[in-house]
Design a protein that fits this description.
The protein is mostly helical. It contains eight helices and no strands. Helix 2 runs antiparallel to helix 8 and helix 6 runs antiparallel to helix 7.
Length: 168
Amino acid sequence: METRSIAAEVPMAPRMSEDPAELVPELAEVSAALFKVTGNGSVPRSTISLVQLRAGQIVGSTYLTVLHTGFLRKAGESEERITSVASWQDSPYFTGAERAALALVEAVLQPSAGGERVSDELYAKAAERYEAKALATLMFAIGQVNFFIPVALIAKPVPGRSFTDPWK
């Protein structure tokens, strides 16, 4: 089993020296479409950002965690809400709808010992909180962050740099 060193310095340069979006310019069209889909207004932007922050935490991506924390701060979210995303199950700062969304992203990204990741029960709870279009949008928001997880983990853009320029 590989162990992680707590003494190692983390480089402040991306692993992949060239911007993947410049190497594959067709990505811009896909990315714009994903942002348009998730920004259709049926799910609050803050909920989408909370879900995407949780995804970054689950997969262990500092880049995604810092990125979505920044989005939430710029949107005026409280530090209590932002910092308690990792422990949302016992946090008093989230609505029932937000809890359903966070449960969905966890179910999608974490293996289930009991078989199916998204159980009928979890789906029913989410469907109680979200109309059909909003639930579909939430699924696409989870898919959107999942689309970018390989970039975050393989190319390793530098955390804290501009969302549009992490390769400089």
